[in-house]
Structure formats: structure tokens, C-alpha cells
Design goal:
399 residues, alpha/beta, UDP-N-acetylmuramoyl-L-alanine:D-glutamate ligase, Protein-Tyrosine Phosphatase, Chain A, 2 domains, 6-stranded mixed beta sheet, 15 helices
Amino acid sequence: MIKKMKILRSIYHYLWAIAAAVVFGFPAKKMFVLGITGTKGKTTSVYLIHHILESAGRKAAMLSTAEIKIGKETEKNLTGNTMPGRFFIQRFLKEALRAGCRYAIMEVTSQGVLQHRHQFIKWGAAAFTNLKPEHIEAHGGFENYREAKLKFFKYAKKNREAFFLINKEDENAEYFIKEAEGKKVVLYSPSDAEEKKLAARMLPGKINEANIALAVAFAKEIGLSEEEIKKGIESFPGAPGRMEFVKREPFTVVIDYAYTPDSLEPVYEELKKYQKGPENKIITVFGAAGGGRDKWKRPALGKIAAEFCKEIILTTEEPYDEKPEDIMEDINGGIPKGKNVYKIIDRKEAIEKAMELAQEGDVIALLGKGAEPYIHSNGKKILWNEKEAAEEAIKKITR
């Protein structure tokens, strides 16, 4: 019965995908669409590639977790989905085409693939960033999660001219190389000396070495010059909610979307650079998703925070139908006794507490929300803006 229901749901999503493409006239056939899949780095890579294209005079559109950009028009992605519904995506591509965009860059998610949101799009290129344990319960195991990502590559191969960009340093790279067999494969490396040099100067954080390596590989493949690529990277303002600095003096406040053990550790490692002296501390504010999502990671998040941070403030992230108190307790289970831990359900109050604790030279890390526009709790979508909450908290302590 369960298998039958899954088949029926798949057919349902497939039919909606066909309908959307027909209604909007298969717009992807008349432009170059790049899809980026993987666990981490999708959003920043989309922003960076879009910026490089625009700075080189190539009109482009972008659909990301945070924002939608078509030409000079920008709006927040308020759908709550990194990869929105079929009609939304096809409409986006149609509007981009009407605006004269030659390129469209999109994030491609595993759950979006399972709902056929990647279908009936002519993919000019598909990119793989990395693969880490995430959405494991939703997919029924890591192998199923990886398989969903591979399905995107398999579908993209239908375009005879499509090429594939793969992070050769990821331990799952061979699966994607094999899936792209018979097509042009461009292997990029975050360890490339030149890209590392650019990353260190322009974008903080080790993850950005991989983002820049991907952007450079793609830009070269479509014929941009080294000068155009360098100009685009050096003028890149960053992606909202990704290592976004809200304040630098007298203490530092940074917002980042990191919400898994694999992403938290490099963020904290990077933020150590901004402590003014050995007596200074990192203060962190974070939570974890509820609704049964990846419960295994909660104590791991607490353990990592305890390694890097002197003050830990646990708060609400995305509780869904769980009690925030229970989620915080799970995280606290990984924090050794003796650490300064505060549990504050209201995220605004938690951020204000971080500002109160900060001294000159300290670093505040606000993690887990990034540029997300909502907090989901008990069936409600509560409007949220992490940056505005941080700025308001800063004002309160400087009045």
C-alpha cells in the first residue's frame, strides 16, 4: 500500500511538471540553464556565478533560497522552498526569457528532484558541490539522498550539449562522474592555488574556496576571460545570510546559514580570526530544526559549539511541530557540563542577550537562519529577518 501511494504521488508531481512546462511554453529551450546541486555551497555559488555573468555583460537570472533576480529586478524568495513548485520555476524561466536573459542559474534540491521539479527543463550544465548527511530521515538513508541528487544528473544528460561540473575532492565525486559518463565533465578543485588566493581575499571561510573554484570552472567553460572572471569575483558583495557581517566594531556580529555539524565547524574556525585577542570570546546563538528532521545532529551541534564558544545561547530555529524546549535539551546533551549555556525560546531575546554579553573584540555568531524569511512553528509561518533582528538588538545596547 505504501509503495502504491509513493507511485501515485510521483505520477501526480510528474503531471504537474508537464502541465507547467506546457503552460509556459518550455522557456528553458531558448536559454542556458545551470543547475547546482549538493548539500552545501549552492546559494553562494548561484549568487557568485550570477554576479560574474552580470559583471561581464551577460544578462542572467537567478533563483536561490534567499532571492529571485531577473535583470535589475530582485525580490525575496518567500515560498519557503529552495526549489519552489513547478509552475513557479517555469514562470521564473519565462519571465527571465522575456527580460532578455541568456542565462538562468538555479539551486536544485533532492526533495525537488523527487517531486519532478527538475523535469522539462533543458539544462545547459549541472554542477555538484558536495554531499554531507542531511535530510536523512526524509529520504530513508544517505544512499537514497545521494540517489536523488544523481537523478538530477541523469536527467540533465538528456540535453546532448550539457556539461557537468564536479567537485573532485568530495568523497562522493565518483558517483557523479559515473552518472555523467558520456558527457563533458569538468572537474574542479577547491585546493587550486589561484582560487584559494581569491577566496582568502574576497570571501571568508573555507567553503568559499569550493564556491569560487566552481564559479571559475563554469565561467571558463562558457568562454569568459580570466580578466572578466577576476573582476566579477573581486566585486562580489556576498550572498545574504552567508558569512554576512552586520557589525565589525567594537565587536563583530556575523550571520550565517550553517545548521549542520559539517558547516558549523568551519564557520567557527573562520570566526576565530576576528577575535581581537586571546581574552576575547565567540558567543553563538543557534537552534535546530524540529519535525523529526535529522535529530542525530543536535548533540553534535552542541559539542562543536562548546569546542569553539565561551557563551552558548540556544534558541528557536525551525521547531515545526516540536517543542523548542525539547530541541534545545537535545542540543544541550552534547555540551559538556560547566559551559555557559542560556536557553531562550524567543529568538529576538536570544540575539539581544548575545549583544549584552559581548565585550570589545568579541565575536557573535548568529547561525541557522541566514536569510530565511520565516520561522515555522505549530503550523504557523512567522515572518523573520535575522539581519533586522540583529540590527535592532545592536541599537538597543547603544541607545
